[in-house]
Amino acid sequence: MTRIGSNDILVRSQVDHGARKPVRADWRVRENDDGFKIIDLSVAGISMALMLRQEFASILRKQDLEGLILLLHDRIV
Prior knowledge:
The chain is an alpha+beta fold. The protein folds into 2 domains: 1-44, no CATH class; 49-77. 35% of the residues lie in helices and 42% in strands. Strands 1-2-3-4-5 form a 5-stranded antiparallel beta sheet. The longest helix has 15 residues, at 48-62. The radius of gyration is 16 Å and the shape is extended.
């Protein structure tokens, strides 16, 4: 574990899956009044938060806010 700033912690892990090469997974965790929350996951150096931000921006460019809301709704239902 490595502290990042005053509230965040970087937790490094490795996922072993059979005969393939292990994959690094880094969890960025933030401490707040409710405890700890995962705020980002980087797998093999690729940030999920960055990927989602880019996906959402693309949807907003091609559609509008309503399109993004529909996408998010479909993902939670």
